[in-house]
Specification:
With 165 residues, the protein is an alpha+beta fold. Helix content is 30%, strand content 18%. It is built from 5 helices and 6 strands, in the order αβββαβααββα. The N and C termini lie far apart (35 Å).
């Protein structure tokens, strides 16, 4: 399987339970971020929403993946997570159901990303970011402490996207 086939084969569910197949994002860059509402890094939701707003029209998808793997900082049920994100940060980008992002029972995307990029690139905490290019290849990863608006993330996002007119 090619990189794009691996990503397209990844199945997600929206936070409200609907299907969100990986091929929905064909031809788009995707910033996949494991999130948590009770984390010191939770304010990053605001910058993720800004990225979504600013780059959605050029082909970027921000995909929030709630995760309770680190410090049990995402214990709430899905409706509460969704309401919290909308109320506090105006989140409009897609959120998935809760997923495991570490260990052998992690979501297939995270198993694939670790295999492709190595153990160093695996999430160590909430708000770890992976950038998938429009061709389905993993482009880069960014640690929790790298804010979504950081110059290196913006540069990585802009590179595969069409120029503005």
């Amino acid at each position: 399987m090619t990189d794009i086939d691996n990503f397209r084969a990844t199945q997600w569910s929206t936070i409200d339970g609907g299907p969100l197949a990986g091929d929905t994002f064909a031809g788009k860059a995707i910033l996949v971020v494991n999130t948590a509402c009770h984390c010191g890094f939770t304010p990053q939701y605001a910058e993720l929403q800004t990225l979504w707003r600013d780059y959605q029209g050029r082909g970027l998808v921000v995909l929030g993946v709630p995760c309770n793997d680190f410090g049990a900082q995402e214990p709430d049920p899905l409706p509460e997570i969704n309401a919290f994100c909308e109320k506090n940060f105006g989140v409009e980008f897609p959120l998935t159901t809760k997923q495991k992002v570490k260990g052998p029972d992690a979501h297939p995307f995270y198993l694939w990303a670790r295999k492709e990029m190595g153990a160093l690139a695996a999430p160590k905490w909430n708000f770890h970011k992976y950038l998938v290019g429009p061709d389905g290849r993993l482009v880069d990863w960014f640690s929790t402490v790298t804010k979504p608006g950081a110059a290196k993330i913006i540069k990585a996002i802009e590179k595969p996207l069409p120029a503005t007119t």
